[in-house]
Amino acid sequence: MFEETPLPLIRFYSYLSNKPRWGHEKELLYINKKENIIEKAAYIELPSHRRHYLSFDLDYECAANVWIDEGLPEPTITIINNENSHTTLHYELTVPILLPIENRSSRVSYKAIRFYNSVREGLRCRMKGDKGYAGFNTKNPFLKSYNGNLKRWKVFCADKTYDLQYLNEFCCHNAENFEILDIDPNSRHMTMFDSCRKHAYRIVKKFSCYDQFNAAVHQLCNDFYSRYLSHIKKNHEFYPSEINSIARSIAKWTWSKRNDPNFSNFTKNRGAMNFLAIDTNKSSLGFTEEVKLRQQQGAKYTHEARKSKTKEKITAAMQYLTSNGIQVSMNELSKLTKLSTPTLYRYQTLIDSLDIQ
Known about the structure:
- With about 350 residues, the protein is α+β, with helices and mostly antiparallel strands.
- The chain has twelve helices and eight strands.
- The protein has helices at about 5-15, 35, 65-70, 110-125, 165-170, 190-205, 210-230, 240-255, 285-325, 330-335, 340-345, 350-355, and strands at about 20-25, 30, 45, 50-60, 75-80, 85-100, 135-140, 155.
- A four-stranded antiparallel beta sheet has the order 2-1-3-7, with no helix packed on it. Strands 4-6-5-8 form a four-stranded antiparallel beta sheet, sandwiched between helices.
- A hairpin with a 5-residue loop joins strand 5 and strand 6.
- The protein is elongated and about 85 Å long.
């Protein structure tokens, strides 16, 4: 089978799962051993627990040469649709990126995943690729023609692998910058809500029309899902209707508060205490007293910061519940904020005030 097969395609085959999903069209309806279907599957699933490629789906004519036009590195695998010349490009990574797997304790680097997504978005922007393409399935470069018909794809290979840091040098850096939290696979909704609302706060005053702002927030949430959450596999889908619900909640609340005199406080990052170095000319007793004073001030600051963070979590969760017409309860708040019920009861006054707004 592999006689005269280019090395990039041999590696492609080795990266596939033993029993990948596959299909004759983009919908992958079947599962079978890869050796049994590799020459008849038009589309095939790439591994869901690691990324060996930066992959791009280019849905426009003559897309195969875009890397030349844009001065980008040559793709490792180029697959061209003979019917419309639409193209899929794969840049093979020297070191693959590991992704989280549900109910497994395998160690992954979310920082590396975010960097991978950032580079992918930067290159997608340069090549005007499909925003919705997640890269978990692809045109199968091994697909053979039958009955003497023209092959469905043309395939070109370059025996090259790439480092993410190198590819990052070619990225378009005009893509939207999110304040990304540590993404918790078990809390995708709140991760999207917290990250996208902070970005919405920064851009709301650029708009004079709610409809335009609302559309921009919906785009933010959909882009955020594609970049940072689509790879997370769960036993339940993250439906588009849920993304739209989060976007509506953010847009409605942010627009209503845009002229609030305290609005600028919503986006501030609170720094640590900026103590100057202790004067070395102080006596031993004076030095000790200064240390104790700073410890006391630091403890007070930490306590207030913790309280402020707790209030922020409760406020965000209440905003989400009330905006979506969900009955407010301590159980719901506890699920969203990850705070214990006794802690929430200590903030009962805040909860009650937010519930009646």
